[in-house]
Amino acid sequence: MNQNCNEPNGYLESINKGIRTVRSLKGTISRGKGTKEEQLKRLAEEIRTADAIVIGAGAGLSTSAGLTYAGERFDKYFGDFAKEYGIRDMYSGGFYPFPDEETRWAWWSRHIYVNRYVYPPAAVYDRLLDLVKGKDYFVITTNVDHQFQKAGFDRERLFCTQGDYGLWQCSRPCHQRTYDNKGKVVKMLLAQGFAIGENSELIAPVTEDGRTDYSMLSTRVPSGLIPYCPVCGEPMTMNLRSDDTFVEDEAWHRASAAYGRFLESHKDQHVLYLELGVGANTPVIIKYPFWHETYENARAVYACLNYGEAYCPKEIEGRSICIDGDIGDILSHRDVVY
């Protein structure tokens, strides 16, 4: 569905402002002023006193919550795909050219479920909600796992720019609508040999020594479970932004407009732009726009919490907080808790 011409496009407006600001900066970066302890205390004070908080979240936040795409978690659910196709992590597996739709949807049903419907090992999102509960906040995120919703963040204050693991769309796409997929994903998993636990846990068959028994699992789903577009009959695909076929449905446009209105309504106030785990892959969506808003508003403060990538432009160094470390540890630190 096309955006209402009377509504702001917060997505594009924010990106364009951010790009303009980055081009005007000298390119010198700073790691922030003061010791880590001093910056932790500043973060707590800003969260407490800000008129509004804009949270910008990237993959690092979900990684801190334990939603890792490689290692033990990958081996537990995708060991058979690793053995058969040489895939070594969930991210690269999402781009693998599987031989047929039955195999592709076996992969994607597992990928969707463990990253969208299973609760994360660590309660980092819950901790973040505790810190901003009662505050005037808004969340923009490039994450597609919707952990903000699962933690209880207000959906009307949430803009997921890049899509949702829980939605499918037409692969063409012939129309601008998305479809919830949980019910069909569960059927695919059951058909492969998995079970679903009481707390939405994905349960794999195990051997006597407790390892996943891949001899009891299938890397294909029945042909009858492959999803097709109800309008044109073409195969369905994930609602994830990767090219110009990404469907921005009515809910996406409502969220974009709400984000634009939120930024505009607080543009001259004491706003904390709280960036969490945003990397270098998509800085134009969160990082650069946050720099812009802080640069333009003398009352704004920019905070960057990131493991190994906590920095800011020199031009806003005096109104920036840069804390290098695990986000969950930072948000639970005694100097941040209040």
What is the CATH superfamily label of the largest domain? TPP-binding domain
Cα shape: globular
State the end-to-end distance.
43 Å
Q: What is the strand content? A: 15-25%
**Biggest pleated sheet:** 6 strands, parallel
Helix content: 25-40%
Number of domains: 2
- CATH uppermost class of the largest domain: Alpha Beta
Uncertain ranges: none
Question: What is the strand tally?
Answer: 13
- SSE order, one letter for each helix or strand: HEHEHHHHHEHEEEHEEEHEHEEEH
Q: Gyration radius, to the nearest Å?
A: 21 Å
How would the blueprint of this fold be written?
Layout: H1 10-24, E1 29-30, H2 36-49, E2 52-57, H3 59-64, H4 72-85, H5 90-93, H6 101-117, H7 124-132, E3 137-141, H8 147-151, E4 158-160, E5 163-170, E6 179-180, H9 182-192, E7 195-196, E8 202-203, E9 236-240, H10 250-265, E10 271-276, H11 287-296, E11 301-306, E12 312-313, E13 320-324, H12 327-331
Parallel strand pairs: 2-3, 2-10, 3-4, 10-11, 11-13
Antiparallel strand pairs: 1-12, 5-6, 5-9, 7-8
Annotation keywords:
single chain, 338 residues, alpha/beta, Rossmann fold, 6-stranded parallel β-sheet, 3-stranded antiparallel β-sheet, 13 strands, 37% helix
What report would you give on this structure?
- It is built from twelve helices and 13 strands.
- The protein is α/β, with parallel strands linked by helices and 338 residues long.
- It folds into two domains: 176 residues, 3-Layer(aba) Sandwich (Rossmann fold), CATH 3.40.50; 93 residues, no CATH class.
- The mean pLDDT is 95.
